Fold these 2 entries.
Entry 1:
Amino acid sequence: MKVRRCALAILEHFDRDSSGFDAVIEREFFLYKLDHRDKRLVFEIVYGVMRHKLYLDYSLRHFLHEKRFEKKSRLMNILRIGMYQIVYLSKIPDYAAVNESVQLAKTKKTTRHLAGVINAVLRKIIAQKKRLPKPSSADQLPERLSITYSHPLWLVKRWLNHFGLSNTKKLLEFNNTRPGIYLRRRIKGLSRQQFETEASAICDVSGGGSGYKNLYYRLKKSLFPDQIGLFREGWCTVQAESSGWVVALLDIKKGDKVLDVCAAPGGKATLIAELCGNTGAVCAGDIRFNRMLKVQETVTRMGFANVFPILSDGRNLPFTGSFDKVLLDAPCSGTGVMHRHPEARWLKSERDIQQCTVLQAELLDRVAPFIVPQGVLVYATCSLEPEENQLQIEDFLRKQPNFILEKPYDPVKETFIDDNGYLFITPHEHAGDGMFAARLKKIRD
């Protein structure tokens, strides 16, 4: 029951206040004193409900004969948890999903009298599991896709416009899969062969690593970082392959002085630190204190003395000087990583995209003076939206004639470079985290 009660508490909090989702999960884990196995199941249920929420609700409405039930948030969350287990989790027996949901209802007065409703609805779902309700062919295509793949309608319409039907369906399908978790090994200190030997029990090491410099290894099973000895000892960190290609775009040399403007949680900063060596340095900034703590934790755990974390707003950097390379991994809508953050699809709106573009443009303008002539600025987002990506860069280049767009070169894979010379990794084409980046060279002051 602890697992389901914890999952329900997280989902109820999300309904009341969607901010600080990760912090809420950590708090509930602490309160319920869950072990690693139970935490994984909570993640599976909570993120599963988030991924399929719209379809779960669409189906549940067919089994709830009174509309007043749909307005009862706690009831709906219990039903979502139960239905998700029945439909999507084959290892949990149907009877267990029903019984746990009924018991969950009895834990509070507001739903105790509805235990019978929950029992009846979930048993009907079990009986009709192979013929659950589907959107009608009479519905418009965007509405059918929205319900079937459980994405907000505005986003489905936007992607249909940008990517077409085939790619949009692939993107929606990908977003409903469990994300792969990758470890990025350190370049020095532990040989590749030794790392692979020690990681072989938990990672796929066949054929060596993948991604930039073959540094990335996919976990074979779901583990928390603190369960991994190589992680605790600083020989690796958790990072998606797409992030490595952004760093590759910087083309870091030994001795480079680098500014990482929005550095949290520190994955890119530590990779840059390895590449620029002890004669180089990385100034890693971020505006929020709790995120800067994560940068400091990552840097300390991995033992890098050439990374200097600083709490700062990229629009008003608290120092003067110049850098050989600047990385602006800008705040964005995150539409390229919604498979990794399924709750985000219910939080974002088109207004958020527009607000992000204003902040991104301001950050670009403010960091440009900190780059030496012939130096490089890499602008990156994990967004798929043109306003935040190529249109943002085109606008910057119109305002800043002292910068030019440089096309990426080896070792960045050609398959990740679009016709305009941008790095553009898309989930539906490359089966990984969506990432956009542009390499901008400063040709004069």
Entry 2:
Amino acid sequence: MIIPVFILYEGCFYRCVFCNQSKITGVQAPSDQEIVHDAIRTYLDVFDSGNLPEKREVAFYGGSFTGLTVERQKKLLGAVQPWINSGHVHSIRVSTHSLLVNELNISFLKENGVQVVELGIQSTNNKVLNAVGRPCDFEIVKSAVNSIRYKGLRLGLQLMPGLPEDDESIFMQSVKDVMGLGPDFVRIYPTLVIKNTKLYEMYRVGEYSPWSLDRMLGLVKETMKEFEKAGIPVIRVGLHADSSMLENLVDGPYHPSFRYLVDSLIARDNMYAMIDRLPSIPPIITFKVPSRKVSLYLGHKKDNIRAIINRYGIENIFIQQIDNQEDLQLVA
């Protein structure tokens, strides 16, 4: 269980073109001790005491945590300590900027219950970063990662495909760079146009065109494959579909089930690969699939079945659900 507490813009020393946290999160006021307590209580009250998730963590998002004053950091982290002492919460994670990381402030975080630090990388390409008002040389990112690792904290990195000046080859190089840093996990947030951002103004005057949903799905699919091969979990794809974000979304590759669409495309590619290995294509084939993954192999509105039929001229495809099966199997 991750319990989010949003510290809107706090610690941020510039405003990225894509960012309007109050519009994304629906939160208007800065977090204080009361808000921290309310957030924790709201999440814990969903479960009875005997049914709580095994791991429970408070996460400070929306700003650059290590850019706050030490007093502000102490206040926020201190608000979580009673919950850690009581066993209701196990640890804390924070999100920050690579420019604001050093061994001193990472030591402070570790001493105050923080176990995970997430860095908003977005891209490793300087042209892209300059275009979005987020200049940060990759050597600085490496230094920040080394400081986090040296203190034994877990590392998460966030990427944002589809920014101004970005394209598939540029982003895949960012993916390669991030894999080289060896994070414990990554998040992928496709670029969306939100009201009251600089990106929205660029969009209005034709200086920025958001990517189509199909284009973004194709890129994120390949990205997910690369991270899977590297053994790096992707724990989040796409923004959470809360009412505030939806009300202020203007344009861009948004879908409420974005992750599912990506996973189903990966499943389709796996099915393609199995058929391609056959010496000849029979008119009817059967796939044995894990019961819990049937919807992925069928695809959105059975798109995968139609795509395979159209690609290979197969008369019919049967999907056989198998309990306790982990892998896809083709019965020709």
